[in-house]
Amino acid sequence: MEENFNMLAKTLFGFEELLANELTQLGAQDVKTGVRSVSFTGDKGFMYKANLGLRTAIKILKPIHSFTVNNEQDLYNKLYHMSWEQYVKPTGTIAVDATIHSELFTNSLYIAQKTKDAIVDKFRDTTGERPNVDLKFPDLKVNVHIDRHQVTISLDSSGDSLHKRGYKMATNIAPINEVLAAGLIMLSGWDGQTDFMDPMCGSGTMLIEAAMIACNIPPNLMRKEFAFERWNDWDVDLFEKIEESLLKKTRDFHHKIIGYDKAPSAVAKAIENVKNAQLDDFIEVKHEDFFKTQKGGDQKLHMVFNPPYGERLDIDMENFYKNIGDTLKQSYPGTDAWFITSNLDALKHVGLRPSRKIHLFNAKLEARLVKYVMYEGSKKGKYMK
To answer: Which segments constitute the THUMP domain (predicted)?
Structure first.
C-alpha cells in the first residue's frame, strides 16, 4: 500500500468550496479549505488522479519540509541541509518559484534564486556535480512559500498551471482561463440536464469546459506532461490505471451545447479548439450576433458567458450592457443567464435585477458573477425581483 501524505491544491479566489467538493468526490481525505487553496491527504495514485481530474485546481503541491527562519542566512542553511538527493539527480535540472507574505523578505525572485543556490551548492559540495536550471521542463520544480517566519518547501507535481488543458491551439484577444470557465459553470449549478449556451463564445473555452462537465470527462487528459512524470518515483503503470478508472466514469449527454460569436475569426478558433478537444459531437458553434438572436424552442436554457469588459476591447459599455438586458428580456424566456464582469458600473445598464451576485476575480480584476432568471411566457420579461 502506498502511504498517504499531505498535499495542497491551489485555486482562484472564490473557488475554494468548489475545489474542496471536487476533492471529496474524488476520494481525498482530511479536506480543509484555505484562501485560494485546499489542503488534503492522499497517496501517490491520488496525486495523479487530482492532477488529471480536478477542474478548479491550478496546481497540486506536495509539501516535503517546513521550518522557521529569522534571516536570509538561516533560510540558506536550512535549505542546504535538506536531502535534495532524494528528489533529483546531481545531473538533473531544477526550477524554483516562491510566494512570500513576510516582512523578513520582500523579493520572491531573490528568494527563488537563494533557494536554487542552496540546492546547487549542496550537490556541488557533496558530489562535485550540480543540477542546472531549466525553467521550461525541469526534472524537479520546487515551490517555496514563506508566511512571516514560517517556510514551507513543496514539490510542484503539476508543472505548468493546470488551466493549460492541452486542447486550446487558437485563442482570441481576451481568452478566458480554463479553470475560471469551469468554476463559473460549476458555480452556476449547471448539471448537464438542459441545453447550454455561451452567446459570446470567443475561442470556445466555456463550451468545451461545459461539455467535459456534462460528460464527466477528466479535464486534463490531453495535457502533454505533468511534472511528476520526471520524478524519481514516477509509476507509469499506476498512472495508466488511474487514467482508465477516471475514463470509466464518463457519461452520456442528451442535450445541446451552443456557442455564438459575431467575429468570424473567433468562430473559426472555437471550432478548431472544439475539434482538438474531440467534443464536436456535443458542441455547435455559429457565426451570430447575440443581440439579433432568439431562443429556439421552449426548453429550459442555461447560459454562461464572459462579455467584454472594455479592458482590452473598445466598445460602448453602456449600450452594450443595455443590449444584453434587452436581448435576454425580449428573446430568451425560460433561461437562467449567468455572466461574469469586472466592469461593475456597466452592470447598472443591464436593466434587470440579478437574483444572485458572487464576488470573484478574473486575473487581477475584481469581478462579479451575476445571475438573471428570465421566466417563460412573458415577452415583457418578468424577472427575479
So the answer is: 46-157
